[in-house]
Amino acid sequence: MQSPTTILGGSESISIDERVVMESEAITAAVKLYAADKDTKLKLYKSKDGRVQFYSDAKSKEAKSIMKLTEAMLGKLDDTIGPVELEEDESGELLGFMIKKGPAYYGLCNAVAEAAPSQRSFMSSSKNTTGFTLFAPELTVYFHDMSVQEEAKIDHSLAHSFIHLELERRYGEVPLWIRESIATALEDMTTGEVWGPWHRNGFVFARSHGDWRGKQTQKQIARLKDLERIFTYKANPYDDFFAHEGFAFAVYALTQEPQALATMLKGMQEMYPETNPKGGRSLMTYEQTQEIFDSSFEPGFLVRLQEWWVKPLRWNEKPKKSKKKKS
User: Fold this and answer.
1) What domains, with CATH codes, occur in the chain?
2) What pLDDT shows up at residue 104?
3) What's 56's DSSP letter?
């Protein structure tokens, strides 16, 4: 049964779910109206299939590069775990902003705060960060502020966030470790590089971005006794060691056992109301995750994972076709 919430200043009572829908619609309308203001100098870009729309004040060439990578990563997700299946009342639109100028970003934060009172505190704190993501509505905003980022790639940052939105639309609020693992895996599967992990602090040498399938990851996977470290990684704050193990899990599952991974994600979605009766970030325990995993994958997963990682394919390498024996 939904909990009623009373609107201040009136006698009407609405459920929490209804309030979320109302605020979601208000935010969408507000940010689109804000983007339409010529003073913001934000231009709209749309994907070929209409799934993605984002506004940007970047140069056209840069914005098109963002869209190209976003389409490619979403395409990889579709090719592995299957295309998105929308409900009848869903528009299918994932909305984003990539902003390079501070005033435009701060103005957008204000527009969201004015449209949805529940987001005011979050928007206030977001002004001191490089962006934010909301799942109601499906909105991601990236502020490319180089004064606080020593190293970043705009296209990876926004495309990575769009993967989070797509996973949330398909499976709801799943644990952060698996969302991050899948997003980093898709970055690698599409470009051979990973630039988008959350909460990465300090300077990161550029060579580290292209070495996620390297010897260090292989050694870590070879030493695993079970999957507990992967399943209990919080992903906030970011930890490079554990992030690589989650990445390894996701790359293998996406390429070798995608339908089992899709079943696991669906199981997490179904368990969420039980683990999070009041909503919020998924609080799934290791035991609950292991239970869903066991019902999704065939026995012997760890052995198969470790065997594959002994010599993983390069990100752009196609599996060799087995030769037919002569009769």
Assistant:
1) 14-171 (3.40.30.160), 173-314 (no CATH)
2) 96
3) E
Mean pLDDT value of segment 156-161:
92
Residue 131, token pair as written in the block: 């962006």
pTM above 0.90, yes or no: no
CA distance 163 to 154: 15
What is the per-residue DSSP string for 13-28? EEEHHHHHHHHHHHHH
Cross-strand bridge partners of residue 56: 43, 98
CA angle 303-304-306, nearest 5°? 65
Q: Across-strand partners of 228?
A: none
- Written as one string, the DSSP assignment of 200-248 is --S---GGGGG-TTSHHHHHHHHT-SSSHHHHT---SS--HHHHHHHHH
Identify which of 143, 114, 102 has the alpha carbon closest to the alpha carbon of residue 30: 114
Q: What pLDDT band is residue 317 in, cutting at 50, 70 and 90?
A: confident
- Please give the single-letter amino acid code of residue 69: L
Cα atoms in the Cβ-side hemisphere of radius 13 Å centred on 106: 6
Partners of 95 in the beta sheet? 53, 139
Q: What is the pLDDT of residue 224?
A: 98
pLDDT at 233: 95
